[in-house]
Amino acid sequence: MNQDLTEGKPEKVLRQFCLPLFGSVIFQQLYNIADSLVAGKCIGENALAAVGNSYEITLIFIAFAFGCNIGCSVIVSQLFGAKKYTDLKTAVYTAMISSGVLCALLMVFGILSCGRLLALIQTPAEILADSALYLDIYIWGLPFLFFYNIATGIFSALGDSKTPFLFLALSSTSNILTDILFVETFGMGVSGVAWATFLCQGVSCMLAMVVILKRLASIRTEEKPALYSFSLLKKTAVIAVPSMFQQSFISLGNIVIQSVINGFGPGVIAGYSAAVKLNNMVITSFTTLGNGVSNYTAQNLGAGKKDRIRAGFGAGIRLVWMLCIPIVFVYLLFGKMLVGFFMDAPTDAALSSGIWFLRIVAPFYFVISVKLVADGILRGAGQMQKFMISTFTDLLLRVVLTSVLAGLMGPVGIWCAWPVGWSIGMILSVIFYFMGK
After folding, report:
1. Is 139 within 8 Å of 107 (Cβ atoms)?
2. Half-sphere exposure (Cβ direction) of 403: Cα atoms closer than 13 Å
3. Pick from 50, 61, 43, 36: which is nearest to 123 by CA?
4. Angle at 372 between CA 100 and CA 376, to 5 degrees
5. Are 63 and 47 spatial neighbours (Cβ–Cβ below 8 Å)?
6. What is the pLDDT of residues 202-260, one digit of tens each?
7. Residue 44: left (phi > 0), alpha (psi -120 to 50), or beta?
8. Which residues lie below 8 Å from residue 312, measured CB to CB, with a gap of 6+?
9. Is residue 234 within 8 Å of residue 96, measured between CB atoms?
10. What backbone phi and psi angles, to 5 degrees, belong to 68?
11. Distance between CA 253 and CA 251 in Å, rounded?
12. Cα(161)–Cα(8) distance, rounded to whole angstroms?
């Protein structure tokens, strides 16, 4: 169901629109959490380390898919708010074609380069084969990743956050069951974890594409929309390319951080893999809510209702802080149980590193959530330069501090880099927001 985000009380509109998005991203993260959980519980600590190690490289591909999602979503939101439905359909077709070409190029790159990337981040020999196997299967599923992201971006642009939530709820639940079936019953090891994700994400993608094409067909236009538009591609790229670079550099930064962590051995890698899954679930949730704020901003900008955007900023912060409170409470009090849940018999190194990561990072969710809401408005308004400055500052600080503090404090020093980067990035994002026209 399409929803006009330019009408109604901002707080109520954002809550109704963003909460299904939050639910969607929880189920999306269940894909990765299920992979790590089954790998750690049913195969062993090294398998968990292999899946976690590979995950940092998959984030490069996710970055490009995310950029396509954001670029398409913001432009379609603006056109939907302005009621330019012919251009809206052309923008969707243009995004799909362009994303398909980009996906094909990335698949070639992945097939040729992932082995080198695993060696570059100093992957320990005992997990190298499983890491490479997981990545090989993941790369063949990239079309599903890309077109699902395009579909969810369009749903969000049209104000519909409930439909992708239903798809993800079904597919992620299926993924957990398929993980267990392939690993426990069929004894497929790490490859079973990867193939389960491949199949379930494929089903989710195809369902989403069928529904979105039907939804577009139901929108009436005065003239037949063009199949491709270079002018709309350019507008989309203005949003998408910086988002891709931003996410890609974050992924590369995470790979550098992962290479430092790898120097401490499989135990610390496994503990970090478990804790970072929990952390990424939270950060991705806040990022998705920020994307919802981007759609809200873009629709109101397209409709010429700029006064509603500032009201949306305050409403967005209140919404994310409502989510922060229980998450921080659970992570601080039950961190040991949550980290241990990923492993059958965790070593002291694995358990300790995961617990300390959550204890140091979790209180600063209140900080990073404010940054991501402000970033959502900057992105929805097309202020990509300011958005990227704050993000790169955060990333650069984390990478540099990781390298420095690891030598002084060990793994705990690495975890301390997160709060510093987040705090400086938040200050910059909020300043840029208040400077915005």
Report:
1. yes
2. 10
3. 50
4. 60
5. no
6. 888 898 899 999 988 888 888 888 889 999 999 888 888 877 877 777 777 777 887 88
7. left
8. 10, 14, 293, 296, 297, 300, 377
9. no
10. -60, -40
11. 5
12. 17
